[in-house]
Amino acid sequence: MSSPLNSAVSGAPITLALSKGRIFDETLPLLDAAGITVTESPETSRKLILPTSDPGLRIIIVRASDVPTYVQYGAADLGVAGKDVLDEHVIEHPGGLYQPIDLNIGKCRLCVAAPVGFDYENAVRRGARLRIATKYVEAARQHFAAKGVHVDLIKLYGSMELAPLVGLADAIVDLVSTGGTLRANNLTVVEDIVDISSRLVVNQAALKTRRHQLQPLLDAFSRASQASA
Ligand SMILES: Nc1ncnc2c1ncn2[C@@H]1O[C@H](COP(=O)(O)OP(=O)(O)OP(=O)(O)O)[C@@H](O)[C@H]1O
Ligand SMILES: O=P(O)(O)OC[C@H]1O[C@H](OP(=O)(O)OP(=O)(O)O)[C@H](O)[C@@H]1O
After folding, report:
1. What are the strands of the beta sheet with 151-155, ordered from one edge?
2. Most exposed: 5, 109, 136, 167, by fewest CB within 10 Å?
3. What is the pTM of this model?
4. Which residues form the ATP phosphoribosyltransferase catalytic domain (predicted)?
């Protein structure tokens, strides 16, 4: 996309919500494909609103799990969030979010993992009540309910791999990519739940009222993500 987004028409730039780290880093090439560069980095700047080379687009930096909230309430017109985060959000706060594009970034798997040597299959067969530590309580609840496995879910906000090592849980539900974190902590995948990637998420009202501004960006993201699939 070579022409600037037309901010003069609506009076306000389009706001894109990103989290710093891998989502910001992996979204940059997609923006680049849309002819947009971001000169400041959230790793070095403390600014939470970053301008872009296009006066019609600004970026806000929020926690990964807060991206759907900013977009749902219209504080951002669109954002990038993992399917893991979106699924948790939508179960608790349905409506208002449109997920038009799988960006094919942030690829990993949501899995059940347990200490090497823990006989998960046998525990499930016996009908044992398992203690599961996770950040993804809703996804875990649905997964184990569908299998008819009784679980006590323990909500954590990070470093789930620690929980079975110190007796907080029997197993965890967490994201796995290379498997390096599990290996380093003597854990192993005992079950795959779902493939994860990051999605573009758009405020449904903005899609109606600012469609002509948003569409070129959506088209550019769609082309770039298909090219990298
Ligand atoms: N190891 C990984 N490989 C690929 N993608 C991943 C990996 N870990 C997480 N992701 C994806 O990237 C998204 C953002 O992860 P990130 O680690 O940047 O945030 P976070 O620390 O999980 O979020 P928060 O700050 O809200 O707790 C996740 O929601 C997931 O979709
Ligand atoms: O299989 P691997 O390649 O080792 O990746 C898996 C790890 O990646 C994620 O953590 P992240 O690196 O995002 O750390 P954080 O959750 O503490 O931000 C996830 O929660 C795992 O711990």
Report:
1. 151-155, 130-134, 171-176, 108-115, 187-196
2. 167
3. 0.94
4. 63-221
